[in-house]
Design goal:
alpha/beta, 5-stranded mixed β-sheet, globular, about 150 residues, two-stranded parallel ribbon
Length: about 150
């Protein structure tokens, strides 16, 4: 789960947009500071370029439009991109590698509460692992550290 990454980016003032296949119970996202959530069918990249695009592996695998967005932004070196979850095939894609996000102390405090709200074990590690790449070309602070 990318809860620590979400929390840290919301707290840092990023415009974080969360899209879910089934929005359902949103209390976990509210704990992480996400102001609203959208259904995946409404997924679109607005004007300008996102700094980062992060998706769950199961959503990435079943959403061709999302895969095209990843490919376009990666090819143009416009955004960092990552997926989390069990998509082992992603680790073999050219330009992709294991990357990690080191959770802030605040994220490590809030994430367990969000996990409990989501009905998941509240075990939290200091880092969250992803598969992706750091392709952002304009000198912004990196989203991930190479793992």
């Amino acid at each position: 789960m990318a809860g620590g990454l979400i929390f840290d980016r919301v707290r840092a003032g990023w415009d974080v947009q969360v899209y879910l296949t089934d929005p359902g119970e949103l209390r976990a996202l509210a704990i992480l500071g996400v102001p609203e959530c959208r259904g995946l069918l409404s997924f679109s990249i607005g004007p300008g370029n996102p700094h980062a695009i992060v998706a769950a592996a199961d959503i990435y695998a079943h959403a061709p439009r999302l895969r095209r967005v990843f490919a376009t932004h990666a090819r143009r070196h416009q955004a960092e991109f990552a997926i989390w979850g069990s998509d082992d095939g992603a680790y073999t894609r050219p330009g992709w590698s294991r990357v990690e996000h080191r959770l802030s102390q605040a994220a490590r405090a809030f994430k367990p509460h969000a996990l409990v709200a989501a009905g998941v074990s509240p075990d939290v590690t200091p880092t969250e692992l992803f598969c992706g790449g750091s392709q952002f070309a304009d000198g912004a602070a990196p989203l991930f550290h190479l793992g």
